[in-house]
Design a protein that fits this description.
By secondary structure, the chain is mainly α. Helices cover 69% and strands 6% of the residues. The chain has a two-stranded antiparallel ribbon with strand order 1-2. The N and C termini lie far apart (29 Å).
């Protein structure tokens, strides 16, 4: 069986094995609150902040570089992704467009 999955943005990526998935999740935990705080600051709404931070974490999970880089770089990547996802959601909300499940 092929271990290739289609990502939310339509791109292919290899399905991680369970051990690799657990490692990625453990690396995401320290930036989870950071993503939410940035999204909440930018959006001013708990529900929207939760959605934007979830999308940011999913995007980070799919980035192979996130696993291989330093903690400082992971925090920088998380900040950028949280800002990007928050702004994407904000644009959808302002234009009353349907919000894509992936925001991108």
């Amino acid at each position: 069986m092929n271990n290739v999955m289609i990502g939310a943005s339509g791109g292919e990526f290899s399905a991680p094995n369970e051990e690799a998935a657990c490692k990625r999740i453990e690396l995401l935990r320290p930036v989870e609150q950071l993503c939410y705080e940035i999204a909440h600051y930018l959006l001013g709404n708990e529900t929207a902040a939760a959605a934007a931070s979830e999308e940011a974490l999913l995007a980070l999970y799919r980035q192979p570089r996130f696993v291989r880089t330093s903690e400082e770089e992971r925090r920088r990547m998380a900040r950028e992704e949280a800002i990007r996802c928050s702004l994407a959601l904000s644009c959808c909300l302002q234009h009353k467009e349907p919000v894509s499940p992936t925001l991108v």
